[in-house]
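Lab channel / #folding
Pinned by the channel admin:
"Please post every new chain as: sequence first, then the structure tokens as a reply. Keep commentary short and put observations after the output so the thread stays searchable."

First post following the new format, from NK:
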Amino acid sequence: MAFFADLHIHSKFSRATARNLDLENIYQAAQVKGITVVGTGDFTHPAWVAEMESKLEPAEPGLFALKKSLADDIDATVPVSCKNPVRFMLQVEISNIYKKSGRVRKNHNIIYFPDLASVKKFNARLDAIGNITSDGRPILGLDARDLLEIMLEVNDQGFLVPAHIWTPWFSMFGSKSGFDHIKECFRDLAPHIFAVETGLSSDPPMNWRVADLDHVRLMSNSDAHSPGYLGRNACVFSTKLDYFAMKKSLETLDLEGYQGTLDMYPDQGKYHFDGHRKCGVSLDPDETARLDKICPVCGRPLTLGVLHRVRELADRPCGYVPETRHGYTSIIPLADILSDIFQVGPKTKKVGRYYDKAVQALGPELEILTRCAGDRIRSAGVPLLAEAVERMRSGQVHVSPGYDGVYGKGRAFTP
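Reply from TO:
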């Protein structure tokens, strides 16, 4: 049976994250969202490691469960329709900022380990290099290739995934400080990179255009900074509930074990189009080219978005579909759909009330968005929800593209 996994999140110890982003709330939100395996986030932060040690216990190989004494209390607050096991995978995002080939490079990388002993050994190595206590996502003046080498020396069953690879400021292929090829970034250790994270502003069809990505799996995760954002992007596995089985399915191009991704429409991501947030300027790459990449309001260089950068590195035309590929499903988060239906903000009480009504009647959010039959959705008594989900599934959506840090808005209905 396929299950959903969200393998890149943060904790309350990262900057600009919610104060309630702790293991208990992650566990609760994962059930309501329908996520079976969730990343821990931030395992380089000593205080977060201490919390994991006190609140988690080993479960299936390489995975962890919330201790029963804590889980029982939280399970009492979860709708019966959403109750399901949740497992944690040890995970951290690291910000690598360093100079290479005459340029400052800034890229984010996700590290996974199957045990806390490896985490502690890895943290000790990083602590000798830079400050790992000030932020849950530490900033290190360490070459990404050297980070990978340290990880392999600690435990070769760990793995590294370049994070949100297209975002302009902090990614492997970013327009501001990235590389043009995986090998350029990781050099002799590039064969150890078998998966990359596509990020919120791109989807698999965009990535299929780039031949350099043919040999890696495309992962999609939420990069959640609060519990409510869990599952906005996710991976779909059909393996045993087992760290090593999940890793192997990514490593070996197992089309059955790793079945692809759930992705927000890429236009919804906050770096899809080019633009200038301060000037309110949003442009597609063709318009940017006509303006010679200069903002028409302030005259300064535009922030070139993900679509622009994909087009720069693409070897194939738009619409190219490789023979061997994993599937993907485009989604709009349920809170955004309800916001569209009721014409109020996604964090309002009204949306919260109907969100609770939907999951109590129908089950977890990702089940509603991807698997629930239309007639069953109608039975929940949420006005227009079935129609909105049907439109979303068929691609009949209207998206105002995101740009320069401003999220795009996805709608199932026109005014």
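NK: The longest strand covers residues 87-100.
TO: also worth noting, DSSP finds 15 helices and 17 strands in the chain.
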